[in-house]
């Protein structure tokens, strides 16, 4: 049982002014594994004040000083990889292979930000003028629970690479991961106040940050509903706002696709991160004339997909993060049935043999129409919808008929045809015959999947303001 009763402000671990206690669970057992004392508005204000003080000197550090800091931070997080891995399995319920990847990914984020910084030119010439990219100010970084350690490291490393100081509000449900990352970052010896980490409720600490006059920029990853609240709260002070929000990504199977490859890829895209992935390919678009064949194959493959104990190496889908999330997923399965979609496999309740833990049956619906609730709303669990299409035009129309636009997938044996489809899809990232990631290329969404981009040079520039210097010099 862990007791977490410290937040991190101005280079020190301090007891929060807030007194509310929040339980942490192991989602595989439903047992309480820890308690965290939450920060409040007072703590948030103290953290912003510390970041503001630190900004005066940190914003003037050289590129090489910041590179040294990122290096030390990356090393410190790497040294805690095993502990972080344990926390990701225990507190989040990630299956072991994925948890190992996530634990490593936190440190990789530091190295990637350093790589971007190393090649970035903060000054450029246009005609007779000089354009200087200047750090925007104190950044407020707000993260969700589905990859908390990574989001903390990625957002902080990018903000610091730009010369910004930061106040981080991690998900209150991921406090064990946050404690490990905070201790590691503290050991890295970064000057006091450059980063501050205040775990608290979103509508308390997050809301204070979103309206705070001394925060110049918010970078938020989370739900579209909260993203809109932050945008409204930031309007009065005209904050620069980056929003990485939800998705309802299409997985488009073209009529020439090899189903032996397409089906495993579709399940990987849909079930990744226990189905709790913003980029999950949850709408599987299949040509009508090959629907029966696709259904047969995906049903067989989904029935072999193990949803259960995250510590069992055969497990692909671990538990939902919380009881609330489990109930939400169950509700969507019920809505799918009620609206007339046909259950191909899975359904309500826990997988056979499991009596506790927030486990969900890997679920695939077919005969889904794109106007059904399960095709429109983000479920954030292992529940997929097959939507049949008649021709390519209809496939593209269905793919784009969504309020989201984060990611899309196209599977085809014909590269030229796949490229043609990709050119007409509205999404921030499109995968052709693969599921891959490149931390140097922009990540973010069209439409209500967000505003702005993270990663690489575009991600760095989201923390910078251009200043044009003109005249005689
Ligand atoms: P959430 O929006 O409920 O919470 C995200 C964070 O915002 C948490 O730290 C929360 O405490 C905080 N928050 C809540 N209310 C707030 C408020 N009023 N003001 C400021 N902050 C507030 O999301 P979640 O349930 O933690 O995560 C799941 C969501 O995140 C899904 O919708 C998913 O698609 C999205 N997500 C997006 C990406 C992406 O990169 N696009 C990545 C992962 C998750």
UniProtKB/TrEMBL annotation:
Taxonomy, superkingdom: Bacteria
Keyword Secreted: no
Catalytic reactions of this protein: an aldehyde + NAD(+) + H2O = a carboxylate + NADH + 2 H(+)
Domain named Aldehyde dehydrogenase: residues: 14-469
InterPro entries the record matches: Ald_DH/histidinol_DH, Ald_DH_C, Ald_DH_CS_CYS, Ald_DH_CS_GLU, Ald_DH_N, Aldehyde_DH_dom
Keywords: Oxidoreductase
Residue spans crossing the bilayer: none
Pfam families xrefs: Aldedh
EC number: 1.2.1.3
PROSITE patterns named among the record's database cross-references: ALDEHYDE_DEHYDR_CYS, ALDEHYDE_DEHYDR_GLU
Active site: 244
UniProt keyword annotation of Methyltransferase present: no
Family as reported in the entry's similarity comment: Belongs to the aldehyde dehydrogenase family.
Name by which UniProt lists this protein: aldehyde dehydrogenase (NAD(+))
Organism: Paraburkholderia edwinii
